[in-house]
Amino acid sequence: MLSKETFLSNVIGLDYAREELFNTINWFKNSEKYEAQGIEVPRGILLYGDPGNGKSLIIREINKNLNDIPCFYFDNSTTAPIGTLNQLFKEARKYSKCIITIDEIDLLVDKEPKIIRLLQENLDGVKTESKNFLLLCACNYMRKLPDSLLRKGRIDKLIQVDEPSKEDIRKYLNYLLEKANIDNREEMIDQEVVNVFSSKRFVDVKAAFNDACLRFGKENINSYNLIQSALLLEENISPNLLENMDKNELYKNCIHEAGHCVVSLKYREQLDINSLRVNNGGGYYRCNFLNQFDTNTHYLDIQISLGGAIAQKLFFKHVGIGSNEDISRVNIRAMEMIESLGYKGFYNGKVTIENFIDTDYLLTQKEKARERIIKTCTRKVYWHLLKNKKLVEAIAKELLKKKYLTAREILEIESRHPLR
């Protein structure tokens, strides 16, 4: 009998996917009871989401550890997929209840388009009764599957396997450290480590952990080593490449990222500052808004995004190419503010019924409102960075030296050069 406590117990995190799978398999096992009441249960499940987040692991665990119901695994590396899958369906019908699993079904459909018709015929029961099996599939790119396969009565239960949460990351790192017999795990998995890994997939976390063990030695591993390996793998760079880079260009990147950082320090009560890094392709400043995104957070986000370009303008009299993405973000955020509040909140022009329904007029006013928002934010950021130029420079120099700064290190620098 299925138990929630033991179901997929070897899978870290992914609570939503595990619960949905548990419920759907339970419904399938008791399908006669539900059908007697006129309730149809799903006959096909699709796990979908970005690669590296645990879909294949779930498929493997279902086949390996689901003891109270037979499971059949289709190997899509076979050279004769049509014949192999046909044989699998025939074998499955010998059982009163069973599960058929297909991993990376999107690749299978790409390789052999006729497989779609075969799946549809078996799910529909065209050739024979189809109610004795549950089809469980996984894919990375759902757009490659036709709507006809995903309609009601076929693969109609869609379960998204999301990116791991911060708590999932913490659990997974603890699992890897425990498996490697590494002590002081709680101390090693601090908030800085979790923040750095928060935007990564499970497969990336494991790769960074393996890299840290190989690079620094398992017995010497610490939180700083984990962070270093994560950032090196993220940028796919060698540790020595930064040293050979033009120091002037690298310093410009540091000033740019320090500009973002110093603007956000002004609003630290509304932000969770994570980390600051620089690399051969630019840099990255991480911070999270504590409140839900609204007009106020949009306004702050615009100012923080402008910080990098304005800092470069203050120090070097020009803006680098790397600012293009920031400027694009600023324009998008400004237009989102206008769409949510209406341009009248930002523009004082006279509005009549006639010109309000004129699309060209409306677009013109929105554009003027967008410019007004950006100009207001630019002035605020410029004067803030001008008053705190020493702090920008201090953060940039430390970043140039270390290549990575934690939130704690940023705040320590700010304590020596207090925000004005």
Structure description:
By secondary structure, the protein is of the alpha/beta class. The chain has helices at residues 15-29, 31-36, 55-65, 81-92, 105-111, 115-124, 166-179, 185-188, 191-197, 202-216, 223-235, 241-244, 247-265, 295-316, 324-341, 353-356, 359-387, 389-402, 407-416, and strands spanning 44-48, 71-74, 98-102, 133-139, 157-160, 271-279, 282-289, 404-406. The longest helix is centred in the C-terminal third of the chain and has 29 residues, at 359-387. The protein is elongated and about 80 Å long. The N and C termini lie far apart (65 Å). Mean pLDDT is 80; it is low at 237-245 and 343-358.
Brief account:
This protein is 56% helix and 11% strand. By secondary structure, it is α/β, with parallel strands linked by helices.
Question: Which tags fit this structure?
Answer:
about 425 residues, alpha/beta, 3-stranded antiparallel sheet, 19 helices
The number of distinct helices, counting runs of at least 4 residues, comes to: 19
Arithmetic mean pLDDT: 80
Largest β-sheet summary = 5 strands, parallel
Instruction: Report the uncertain regions.
Output: 237-245, 343-358
In order across it, which strands form the biggest sheet? 2-3-4-1-5
Span of the ends, CA to CA: 65 Å
Order of helices and strands: HHEHEHEHHEEHHHHHHHEEHHHHHEH
